[in-house]
Amino acid sequence: MSPELRFHAAGMAEVALDDAWLTGPEAARLASMRFPKRRLESRLGRWTAKSAIARALDRPFDADGLRSVAVRNASDGAPEAFVGDRPAPVVISMTDRADWAVCVVATGVDAVGCDLELVEPRSHRFVEDWFTPAEQEVVASSPEEHDLWANLIWSAKESALKVLRQGLRLDTRTVEVTFGDEEHDGWRSLLVTSTTGETFPGWWARHGDFVLTTAATSPVPPPTPLTTPTPLATAIPTHTWLSAAAGEQG
Q1: Per-residue pLDDT tens for 140-159?
Q2: From CA 95, how far away is CA 82, in angstroms rounded?
Q3: In whole angstroms, what is the distance from residue 112 CA to residue 10 CA?
């Protein structure tokens, strides 16, 4: 099977208000979440992932179709796709930021990671604390684009750590990001190398205020959107959970 990456992005406003699209365990888990931020972001992430999996597998995109798709967490916390009670023939990665979420659906690779970040201010101390010396040099070499490179490198690290199924349990300096010259349809190549010698090729693209990265266990073509154009092209970052939290406190 030829390797392929496809992705779907969704904003908070797209998520259905009812629970008809959720499985019973998914609905119960969301209902048990005490804090509005976590509950809303988890709901958005599940909606986006189920939508991505259904589209990638050409399944019905209605409440019944989405309910038949489940996203379960493995023992290490990594998301896994199921259709009914059977594992789906894809691997996935999920990410969300500022009321937007992305799910990457991959075939032909053992594991995939993705991460969505805002291009927002990052301090020099942040770069010194979390980046390798070589990565610090990349950021320092473009002071006019400090925030882009700082958030891009951070995002690529997160994507690679998801491939390793470790997340931020590992020191972010155990993986190092470098950038290639290859470019296709707005995506640019990158490579993440671990201190143990493992390599994770990937891609990055900027969408307005956001930057999105991917990484995988082996080379893959650039990601293609499951909906065209991707909503990220015009995405506006917001923070719905703030008003939700205020409402619950009131």
Answers
A1: 999 999 999 999 999 999 99
A2: 18
A3: 19
